[in-house]
Amino acid sequence: MSKGATKSRRRKPKLSAGKYRIPDPSSLVEYYSKAIGRALDVLECFQDGETTLSLMEISELQDVPESSLFRILLTLEAHGYLLRTADGSYRLAPKLLFGRLYDRAQRVREIVHPFLKDLNARFNETASMGFLFQDRIEVVDTLEAIQEIRRTNTVGRSIPPHCSSIGKAIVAFLDRAVAERILRINGIPARTEKTITDHAKLLLEFEQIRKNGYSVDREESLLGGVCFGAPLFDDRHHVIAAISVSVPLFRMTPEKEPEMIQAVIDTAHKASAAISEHAKKSDRAAE
User: Fold this and answer.
1) Which residues, at least 6 apart from 8, have a Cβ–Cβ distance to it below 8 Å?
2) Of the N and C termini of the chain, which has fewer Cβ atoms inside 10 Å?
3) Domains of the chain: which residue ranges?
4) Residue ranges in the chain modelled with pLDDT below 70
């Protein structure tokens, strides 16, 4: 090499106190890894734990040749981020699933919260929202009644899928195989003497919930209270969550019950429409 020649070197981010400093936003393109970006784009195709996609389907979604995509999928599978099913399609692995579901639950909670707030204010009774996390249902939002005697709820609490209004509203609208799996994992133990613990009767209850569009927990999970729930659907019309209003039994009247049920149904419809619209806006922004 001649004296005048200089060796070409790849630029590195400037160091600060022995560590890489975050590059200025104007220089992000220079350091952006297209290979990692493509892999992350592939993971974004999977909306939840039930989504399964084939090589061809992912190729169409991402507009990436199957030959190039196969290497990405093989790498993600090898590192435990994707699982390959018996028919050769792919789904999210457990190590990624909870984080994705948690992020989605928080987005849905933010969308639904104003509707839940209106429901709480209208009746001055506790309004809650539960989200489906793969095989369990968890409270992600609750607004309590401003009354001395009231039904309470706690964010983070797991909800029984067979005897709570939120749980029944979700499970009733799931595919039969998924519903059966959730019941098998969680069991159907008696919480009170009014809990339905017969599997066949519970399936009939779910059928009635699908027909009516709402669920009722009348002292099935806790004595002294009644709850009305309705499902929330995403833009693919998959049930992902549910809302409810909980009332001490002594405060419920024959006149108030149908009004409250209709309000829960209407609120769930409005909230589901808002969830779908948000998803469509996000898709348009990504195009």
Assistant:
1) none
2) C
3) 21-92, 101-286
4) 1-29, 283-287
